[in-house]
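RECORD TYPE: inverse folding
INPUT: structure tokens
STRUCTURE:
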């Protein structure tokens, strides 16, 4: 009978379609990239802000303004590439370091990029350096540093390991980029141009995108230096405790070790 004969054929056809569909789905899953930009959160931290200008006393250019501008440009570039971006500050406000870390640690599958500019009393000091602390942060630091130094006319001061607060306390890959010296006349002039700040943002974004593509760079381990400075700061603090007991502002050495 026609109806009874077509039944088994129809069942086989449906089974074959199901197997092909299942196989295609499995192949698609197997060929999918391990990470897409929309699955990664980038927490961008613009250094300083509010009453904290950054830099050194008497510095003409406020570091807090430069870091915020680069951070906002970086946000725009990464957002356009499909990344989810979170800013620890998006205006001229002061955000305590523990709050910045808490924001970073509240996201899974995230990375943390902290933007700073350098300063010193020696006007001739120049160059770009990138800091990290945990070993799983080194690939990110290497990639970001490679691209920023490759796209900037400033000297390469290298990748450095140091226990700054925002690097030491974050539970995700974290880097701190020093984008040049605002106390150096040449680098300060660069930083004050929108095109250069955009270039910094573009290169940092490229480093974020390619953090798993480049090998890890060699680095200078400054963690022992930082520990020594903290011990000196503690001794100095004990000697001057009575003089400083009414002051809430940390000393320069304490502030540096807390960054």
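DESIGNED SEQUENCE:
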């Amino acid at each position: 009978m026609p109806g009874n004969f077509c039944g088994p054929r129809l069942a086989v056809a449906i089974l074959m379609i199901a197997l092909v569909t299942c196989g295609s789905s499995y192949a698609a899953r197997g060929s999918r990239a391990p990470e897409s930009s929309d699955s990664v959160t980038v927490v961008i931290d613009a250094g300083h802000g509010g009453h904290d200008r950054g830099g050194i006393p008497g510095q003409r250019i406020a570091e807090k303004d430069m870091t915020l501008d680069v951070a906002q440009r970086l946000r725009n570039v990464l957002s356009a590439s499909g990344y989810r971006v979170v800013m620890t500050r998006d205006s001229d406000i002061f955000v305590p370091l523990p709050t910045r870390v808490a924001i970073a640690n509240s996201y899974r599958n995230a990375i943390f990029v902290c933007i700073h500019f350098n300063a010193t009393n020696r006007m001739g000091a120049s160059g770009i350096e990138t800091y990290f602390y945990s070993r799983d942060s080194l690939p990110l630091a290497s990639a970001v540093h490679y691209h920023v130094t490759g796209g900037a006319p400033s000297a390469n001061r290298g990748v450095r390991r140091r226990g700054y607060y925002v690097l030491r306390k974050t539970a995700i890959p974290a880097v701190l980029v020093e984008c040049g010296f605002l106390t150096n006349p040449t680098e300060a002039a660069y930083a004050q141009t929108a095109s250069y700040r955009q270039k910094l943002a573009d290169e940092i974004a490229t480093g974020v995108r390619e953090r798993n593509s480049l090998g890890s760079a060699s680095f200078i381990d400054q963690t022992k230096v930082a520990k020594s400075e903290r011990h000196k700061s503690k001794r100095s603090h004990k000697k001057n405790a009575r003089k400083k007991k009414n002051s809430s502002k940390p000393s320069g050495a304490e502030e540096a070790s807390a960054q």
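NOTES: The longest helix spans residues 2-31.
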